[in-house]
User: Fold this.
Amino acid sequence: MDAGRQAALRIARRAPFAAYTDLEYETAREALAPLARRFRVRLGRRRHVAPRGRVDFRRTIRASLQHGGALADLRFRARRPRHLDLLILADVSGSVRYCSALMLELVAGVYGYFRHVRSFVFIDRLAEAEFAGGHVATEPALDLYARSDFGRVLAQVWERRTELLSAATLMVILGDGRNNRRPARADLLRDLRRRCRAVVWLIPEPAERWGTGDSAIHQYAREVDTLHPCANLGELERSLERSIRAVF
Assistant:
C-alpha cells in the first residue's frame, strides 16, 4: 500500500464518528479490515495467567531474567472458558449508525469464538440484524426517522429475556443514551444485568456531552458493569476487545 493510502487509513481510524459522512464511512470500512484480523487473533489467544495449570515457558523465562536467568519463579497458564454467549444491541439513529455498522462488521468476524451470538439494532424498537454485503440488514425494517426510545427497547428485551439471556451472556450495548426525554427505564437494565454474565456499554459520543440535553447515559451507566468511550474506530476496536476479553 502506498504511503498516501496508509496515511488516509490512519486518519480514518482517528476520525470522530460524530463527523462522519458516507465517504468517511467507506474509508473506515477499508481501515477496518486489518483491525478485524488483529481482533480475531487476539480473541484466539485463549490462554491466560493462572496460579496453577500448565507451565508457561515464555512468561517463566521472561521472569527469570529478573533473577539472573534462574528459573526461580514458575509462571502458569490456563485455558479461558469458551462457553460464552454474545448479545449486541446497537443504536442506529443519527450519526451513531456509522459506529454501529462498523461494530457489527467487526464482530461478524469473531462469531466462532462464542456459543451463541444475537445482534439487534434499534431506534425506538428492536430489530434483529446481520451484516451482509456491506450493509446492515434488519428484520423487521426500522423507521430511520423515528425518535429514539431506549426505554421501550429495554422493555422489549425484557419480554424476550428467557430467549435472549442466560448466566453465560455478555450483553454489549452501543449507543449515546439519548432518549428524547422519554422514560429511561434504567430499572429494566438493572434487572437484565442480574440475569446475565455482564453488561458493557460502548458510547461513541464525546465525554463532554454525556448527560447534557436529553442524554440519560448517567442513569444507564449506574446499571452496567463498565462503560467505554469509542469516539473513533481505533477506540471502538480497543473498547470492544477489552469488554469481551474481560469475561472470555
